[in-house]
Structure prediction request, 136 residues.
Amino acid sequence: MGQVTAALIWIDEHILIAQRGRGKRFACQWEFPGGKVRPDESPEECLRREIKEELNLEIRVDRHCCTVNHRYPDFDIELIAFWCSIMAGELRLLEHEQVRWITLAEASQYDFVEADLKVIAALASPPGEGKRDRKD
Prediction:
Protein backbone atom coordinates (compact mmCIF):
# COMPACT_ATOMS: atom_id res chain seq x y z
CA MET A 1 0.00 0.00 0.00
CA GLY A 2 1.49 3.31 -1.06
CA GLN A 3 1.50 6.31 1.23
CA VAL A 4 0.17 9.57 -0.21
CA THR A 5 -0.18 12.95 1.50
CA ALA A 6 -2.76 15.71 1.23
CA ALA A 7 -2.48 19.35 2.34
CA LEU A 8 -5.57 20.88 3.90
CA ILE A 9 -4.91 24.60 3.57
CA TRP A 10 -7.73 26.46 5.30
CA ILE A 11 -8.12 30.25 5.11
CA ASP A 12 -11.18 32.37 5.88
CA GLU A 13 -13.66 29.47 5.87
CA HIS A 14 -12.29 28.17 2.54
CA ILE A 15 -10.06 25.22 1.71
CA LEU A 16 -7.69 24.92 -1.25
CA ILE A 17 -8.44 22.26 -3.87
CA ALA A 18 -6.60 21.52 -7.11
CA GLN A 19 -7.67 20.00 -10.41
CA ARG A 20 -5.38 17.23 -11.62
CA GLY A 21 -3.52 17.85 -14.85
CA ARG A 22 -4.54 16.45 -18.22
CA GLY A 23 -2.68 13.31 -19.18
CA LYS A 24 -2.33 12.19 -15.55
CA ARG A 25 -4.22 9.39 -13.83
CA PHE A 26 -7.61 10.76 -12.73
CA ALA A 27 -7.12 13.69 -15.14
CA CYS A 28 -9.22 16.79 -14.42
CA GLN A 29 -10.64 15.41 -11.17
CA TRP A 30 -10.24 17.49 -8.01
CA GLU A 31 -8.04 16.72 -5.03
CA PHE A 32 -6.30 18.20 -2.06
CA PRO A 33 -2.76 18.93 -3.25
CA GLY A 34 0.00 16.57 -2.13
CA GLY A 35 1.71 13.48 -3.44
CA LYS A 36 3.51 10.19 -2.99
CA VAL A 37 5.81 9.69 -0.01
CA ARG A 38 9.31 8.67 -1.09
CA PRO A 39 11.12 5.88 0.82
CA ASP A 40 13.60 8.37 2.33
CA GLU A 41 11.12 10.96 3.66
CA SER A 42 8.44 11.41 6.27
CA PRO A 43 4.87 12.29 5.24
CA GLU A 44 5.45 15.84 6.49
CA GLU A 45 8.64 16.20 4.41
CA CYS A 46 6.79 14.81 1.40
CA LEU A 47 4.03 17.37 1.77
CA ARG A 48 6.42 20.32 2.00
CA ARG A 49 8.29 19.06 -1.10
CA GLU A 50 5.18 18.34 -3.15
CA ILE A 51 3.49 21.67 -2.43
CA LYS A 52 6.68 23.53 -3.40
CA GLU A 53 6.98 21.47 -6.62
CA GLU A 54 3.29 21.69 -7.57
CA LEU A 55 2.20 25.14 -6.34
CA ASN A 56 5.40 27.08 -5.60
CA LEU A 57 4.33 27.54 -1.96
CA GLU A 58 6.26 26.96 1.23
CA ILE A 59 4.00 25.48 3.87
CA ARG A 60 4.11 24.61 7.52
CA VAL A 61 2.58 21.24 8.36
CA ASP A 62 0.52 22.10 11.42
CA ARG A 63 -1.10 18.84 12.51
CA HIS A 64 -2.48 15.53 11.34
CA CYS A 65 -6.14 15.60 10.35
CA CYS A 66 -6.95 12.06 9.28
CA THR A 67 -5.65 8.98 7.51
CA VAL A 68 -7.85 7.06 5.10
CA ASN A 69 -7.23 3.83 3.24
CA HIS A 70 -8.65 3.40 -0.22
CA ARG A 71 -8.59 0.57 -2.73
CA TYR A 72 -8.65 1.51 -6.40
CA PRO A 73 -9.10 -1.27 -8.97
CA ASP A 74 -5.34 -1.67 -9.52
CA PHE A 75 -3.69 -0.25 -6.37
CA ASP A 76 -4.24 0.66 -2.70
CA ILE A 77 -3.27 3.90 -0.97
CA GLU A 78 -3.01 5.21 2.55
CA LEU A 79 -3.90 8.91 2.27
CA ILE A 80 -2.53 11.00 5.14
CA ALA A 81 -4.10 14.46 5.40
CA PHE A 82 -2.57 17.32 7.38
CA TRP A 83 -3.76 20.80 8.23
CA CYS A 84 -1.19 23.18 6.73
CA SER A 85 -0.44 26.91 6.62
CA ILE A 86 1.10 28.91 3.80
CA MET A 87 4.34 30.48 4.99
CA ALA A 88 5.80 31.98 1.78
CA GLY A 89 5.69 31.92 -1.98
CA GLU A 90 3.37 33.03 -4.73
CA LEU A 91 0.83 30.47 -5.92
CA ARG A 92 1.75 29.18 -9.38
CA LEU A 93 0.25 26.20 -11.15
CA LEU A 94 3.14 23.92 -12.04
CA GLU A 95 1.22 20.63 -12.45
CA HIS A 96 -2.49 21.29 -11.93
CA GLU A 97 -5.08 22.67 -14.38
CA GLN A 98 -6.50 25.08 -11.80
CA VAL A 99 -7.04 25.64 -8.09
CA ARG A 100 -10.05 26.92 -6.19
CA TRP A 101 -10.80 28.08 -2.69
CA ILE A 102 -14.11 26.47 -1.68
CA THR A 103 -16.21 26.02 1.41
CA LEU A 104 -16.80 22.46 2.56
CA ALA A 105 -20.48 22.90 1.65
CA GLU A 106 -19.40 23.46 -1.98
CA ALA A 107 -17.30 20.27 -2.16
CA SER A 108 -20.21 18.21 -3.53
CA GLN A 109 -20.16 20.40 -6.66
CA TYR A 110 -16.71 19.05 -7.63
CA ASP A 111 -15.67 15.68 -9.06
CA PHE A 112 -13.11 14.59 -6.44
CA VAL A 113 -10.89 11.53 -6.69
CA GLU A 114 -12.38 8.75 -4.54
CA ALA A 115 -9.81 8.77 -1.72
CA ASP A 116 -10.22 12.52 -1.22
CA LEU A 117 -13.98 12.04 -0.82
CA LYS A 118 -13.16 10.05 2.32
CA VAL A 119 -11.10 12.99 3.63
CA ILE A 120 -14.00 15.36 2.96
CA ALA A 121 -16.28 13.04 4.94
CA ALA A 122 -13.81 13.14 7.84
CA LEU A 123 -13.75 16.94 7.96
CA ALA A 124 -16.48 17.36 10.53
CA SER A 125 -15.24 20.70 11.86
CA PRO A 126 -12.39 22.70 10.33
CA PRO A 127 -9.96 24.52 12.59
CA GLY A 128 -10.87 28.01 13.72
CA GLU A 129 -7.28 29.13 13.98
CA GLY A 130 -4.64 30.34 11.58
CA LYS A 131 -6.91 32.38 9.35
CA ARG A 132 -4.81 34.48 7.01
CA ASP A 133 -5.18 36.22 3.70
CA ARG A 134 -5.18 33.84 0.75
CA LYS A 135 -2.08 33.65 -1.41
CA ASP A 136 -3.71 33.72 -4.85
About this structure: The domain at 16-24+36-98+108-122 is CATH 3.90.79.10 (Nucleoside Triphosphate Pyrophosphohydrolase). The helical segments are 43-55, 114-122. DSSP finds two helices and seven strands in the chain. The chain has a mean pLDDT of 88.
